[in-house]
Amino acid sequence: AQVAPVGEAWRHALQDTTLVLHTADNSHPNVAGTYLAACTFHTALWDESPVGLGYDPGLPVAQRAALQASADAVVFDPDAEWGLELDRPVAGFSYVVNGGTVEVTDTSLAPATSTYTWDFGDGGTANGPTATHTYAGTGTYTVSLVVSACGRMDTVMQEVAITTLGLAEREGLSEMLPAVVITDVLPVEAQEAVRAELL
Question: Do 101 and 44 fall into the same domain?
Answer without folding.
Answer: no
